[in-house]
Amino acid sequence: MRKKLVAGNWKMHGNLVENKQLLSAIVAGLDGLLNVQFVVCVPYPYFSSVQSVLQGTNIAWGAQNVSQYEKGAYTGEISVSMLNDFKCSYVIVGHSERRTLFFESSLIVAEKFAAAQRVGLTPILCVGETLEQRETGMTEQIIEEQLSAVVNLAGVESLNKAVIAYEPIWAIGTGKTASPQQAQDVHAFIRKGVAARNMSVAQDLTILYGGSVKANNASELFAMPDIDGGLIGGASLVSSDFIAICRALHN
Ligand code: PGA
After folding, report:
1. Is 39 within 8 Å of 62 (Cβ atoms)?
2. Pocket of ligand 1, candidates 167, 172, 212: which has the most ligand atoms within 8 Å of its Cβ, to mutate?
3. Ligand 1 atom at shortest distance from the alpha carbon of 174
4. Fewest C-beta in 10 Å: which of 4, 19, 21, 49?
5. What Cα–Cα distance (Å) separates residue 53 from each residue in 76, 128, 181?
6. What is the tens place of the pLDDT at every residue in 5-42?
7. Where are the domains of the chain?
8. 156 C-alpha to center of ligand 1: Å?
């Protein structure tokens, strides 16, 4: 069975007081919803406080990035075992902001993906094209390159314990959502690409859509056959919006 998932990506937002208010509202709003998995990916310093609010609830927590290295002289980096210490379940790898602003190549992203899986974390692998790439007909080529970097390093079966998030870069934080059909076309392309390598992995693969998902467009996106949930940025910081998006997937 393909799992359904809504993941919040807080990015570099929040503080101790606001996080507590946001989380207690979300915990109350999602109480008792069991057919969908929920996760919030929070900034590193808040793991401990987030863990104390969320443990025992139906909401998991995770990170937005992680080092590809196990340990050592890597000033400023955070390892997968450190995430494990705080009982993280998920980690986002290859978000376009990491690829673009911090120069992470597809190979580095694949190494982070593999490192996460080595300690039992579920990577949420982000893939997506720029507007220019879309307009020049390169979307599928870009997605295939980003996906095959991971498959070549970790093997197609690694996707059994991973989630893919299709996030067109032109839709992230812009208020310009991909239409349900545009998103569905790329999701189907991703699933087809995985199916060509392993049919059963493809059938069970959870593929999220991300990029300006809001309370008022979530239902139509989630209605598409290959969209299994969402990766939510801005709207994950507003409890009523995040709850509405989560409920749109649950229904
Ligand atoms: P957005 O961000 O929902 O604010 O567009 C999505 C993301 O970057 O994961």
Report:
1. yes
2. 172
3. 5
4. 21
5. 26, 33, 38
6. 999 999 999 999 999 999 999 999 999 999 999 999 99
7. 5-250
8. 27
Say how far apart CA 235 and CA 68 lie, in whole Å. Answer: 29
Q: Which residues line ligand 1 (CB under 6 A)?
A: 9, 167, 172-173, 210-213, 231-235
Q: How confident is the model at residue 92 (pLDDT cuts 50, 70, 90)?
A: very high
Burial class (CB in 10 A: 0-12, 13-18, 19+), 219: middle
Identify the residue whose C-alpha is closest to ligand 1 atom 3.
233
Name the nearest CA neighbour of 232 among 209, 216, 250. 209
Distance CA 50, CA 16 (A): 9
Two tokens, residue 178: 């991909």
In angstroms, the CA 62 to CA 6 distance is 12
Instruction: Enter the tokens of residue 39.
Output: 């996760």
The fold of the 5-250 domain, in CATH, is TIM Barrel (3.20.20)
- Report residue 134 as tokens: 């879309």
**How big is the chain, counted in residues?**
251
